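Practice problem: predict the structure.
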Amino acid sequence: MPPTAGNPVTPDQARAVAALRAGSRFVLAGHVKPDGDCLGAQAALARVLAALGKEVWIYNPDAPEAQFDYLAREVRFRVWSGDVLPAHDWTVLLDISELSRCGPLEPALRAANSRKMVIDHHIHDGPVWWDESYVDVRCAATGLLVRRIARELGVELDRGAALGVFTSLVTDTGWFKYSNTDAETLATAAELVALGLEPARLYGSIYQRQNSELPLALARSLARMHYHAGRRLAVVDLPRAGAGESELVDSDLLLDILRSVEAVEVVLFLRETKDGVCKLSARSKTAYDVQKLAKRFGGGGHAKAAGATILGSLSDARERLVAAALEDLAVLDAAGARETAARAAVEGAR
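Answer:
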């Protein structure tokens, strides 16, 4: 059994579990371009609630990527197309805490005559608007929160739920190599493998089905890379692909390559998506908090991984982003210097 002693159930979480137990009909919703954690958590919760005899529908603004088709064989992911939502008691947002991140699905969810719940592990900055929540910002993945919920509901994971939780874990921890990998993460992974999941097969499904254009897209992206601050900061600004060029949609491989450089502490990948709109993916491997940087541009995420949508031309967005990143590095360095001086003073007084 995965460790739970370090994760006592809070009053908010207990109320959320009670609401899940008492409810009858649930709409599970996720964010634009749902990732592995979002989809995995939805699949797992859908199967857990179904095991209790609940009616469950999953709605997202976009369809799952092909790499997650094994999940789509276990549960039905509906894509919002403007139709009427089924009558339901609860709207449950997974892996997000803002309705605005549901894109075109937002108005329908907001207008629905249902209570609202959030299950998430991201930092929420703003007023509480939901009725109930199951949130832990220290948790490695939203799917891991669903695993906790299943245990509190007394539901054993079936194959679909297990696949969902495992997908959440491996995609949000970079297959257990990111700093959010902890004892609960690894113990849960071991539990799921003991249930019969095959890690090698799932790794192949998620990460080894890229199209033949990926190497060319990576090459085009890496050619746009520049170092700053003595190579501590690596930045890629990528225009939209032109005729005969390949578009890089999945940035994880690029970010991993840049983070592998010993001197690099922070990686910023800024991709132009259309005129006047750029998407930021930011990663850190030190004390630098990229969530705070992303927040300055209207985004969010975690201390080590965050993102934002930035309005403006690619060159303008890049200039503002690099200036802000360098400013934050300077502040971090100054704080480190003060801490070092304070420790030295204490040592000298002994």
